[in-house]
Amino acid sequence: MANSTTGKAKVAEAATVNTMAVLAPAVGWLIPGAGHMIQKRWIRGLLLFVSIVTLFLLGLAMDGRIYKANGGDILDILGFIGNVGAGGLYIITLAQDWGRGAIAFATADYGTKFMIVAGLLNFIAVADAYHIAIGKKQ
Amino acid sequence: MTITLNHFSAAAVFALFASVVFGITHRETTRDMVRYGLYCFAMFLGGALVAGWTMWLLRR
């Protein structure tokens, strides 16, 4: 009887872990830092949110360029992969037709790199949220 | 509105935010996160300064 109860508790716990292992990375990709916040890592989540969103918005304010899905130059493809990491920020930027880039300014090129790096940093944050969800990290 | 940053300001902003993310994601405890974040920040900015001075020396 006791074994049966313990077994059910383990199954329920495993189901929760599996759900969180899918939910946390998905939410974290869509909203930077949210993958940590739904696992009650509030401060870490907030710091990740502020860092990634600020970097992305600064890139946008510096007239950086956003990459769309493409099958052309390898650097354009890599730029797109980096940008996609920003999740919701990337979707909103594309929907609003922002991030067209101003090639007249050197700072616009910095802005482009800022937005790519923000996406790549969010990929790392997503992986971290997953590791927390599966119990590999506290 | 367009924000214009010079090269060093851009490097400093990049170093700050990248270090925060690296610190949080690469270490387990709060103390280690802070230490690693500061280490990354110093390496990013130090690397930019060293590279800058190296290029200045090579140019002469």
Mean pLDDT of chain A comes to 91
Question: Could you describe the largest sheet of chain B, including whether it forms a barrel?
Answer: none
Q: List the domain count of chain A as a whole number.
A: 1
In whole angstroms, the N-to-C terminal distance of chain B is: 39 Å
- Note the overall shape of chain A: elongated
Biggest chain-to-chain interface with counts: A-B, 26 and 18 residues
If you had to describe this structure to a student in words, what would you say it looks like?
The complex is a heterodimer of chains A (138) and B (60). Chain A is an all-alpha fold. Chain A contains 6 helices and no strands. The model of chain A has no long low-confidence stretch (mean pLDDT 91). Chain B has one domain. Helices cover 83% and strands 0% of the residues of chain B. Chain B is built from 2 helices and no strands. The longest helix of chain B has 30 residues. Chain B is flat. At the A-B interface, α3 and α6 of A face α1 of B.
What topology does this entry show?
The complex is a heterodimer of chains A (138) and B (60).
Chain A: H1 2-30, H2 34-37, H3 42-61, H4 74-84, H5 88-95, H6 106-133
Chain B: H1 7-26, H2 30-59
Descriptors:
heterodimer; A: 138 residues; mainly alpha; 6 helices; B: 60 residues
Please provide a brief summary of the model:
The complex is a heterodimer of chains A (138) and B (60). By secondary structure, chain A is an all-alpha fold. Chain A has helices at 2-30, 34-37, 42-61, 74-84, 88-95, 106-133.
